[in-house]
Amino acid sequence: MNVYKRILFYLKPYWGRLGLSVLCSVFFSLFSGISLYLTIPLLETLFGGGTAASTAISSPAASIVPDWINAARVSLSQAFQQLVFRPDPASSLLNICIIIVVAFFIKNF
Q1: Which of 37, 70, 71, 92 would you call most buried, defined as having the most Cβ atoms within 10 angstroms of its Cβ?
Q2: d(Cα 107, Cα 41) in Å, to the nearest integer?
């Protein structure tokens, strides 16, 4: 137990940096997941795939997750699909590329 107290004593001046490091790690993980999620519409637009992945994403999952989280996830997914999927494939591709570049920039920042 004395070893842990001694480590915490040495860590005390760096609490701010440790908190900032944890916060940056959380943002990096979040934007890594987002950038991975963004490749699905990019590939659907490029290769003309069906909408099976997009309908599977928007359907509520039967799990222990509260309803308000599922509703927020569905509304966020629908807003994303309205932003990305346009009638013109060129504008859809441009929107996807811009979103991916912004997500990677924020992730690497």
Answers
A1: 92
A2: 19
pLDDT truncated to tens, each residue of the chain (109 aa)?
788 888 888 888 888 999 999 998 998 888 888 777 777 767 776 667 654 444 444 444 556 777 888 888 888 778 877 877 777 778 878 887 888 888 788 777 7
Domain span at 21: 2-108
pTM of the full structure: 0.50
Number of domains observed in the structure of the chain: 1
Of the candidates 56, 54, 32, the one whose C-alpha atom is nearest the C-alpha of residue 43 is: 54
Whole-number Å distance between alpha carbons of 87 and 92: 8
- Closest among 64, 77, 10 to 2, alpha carbons compared: 10
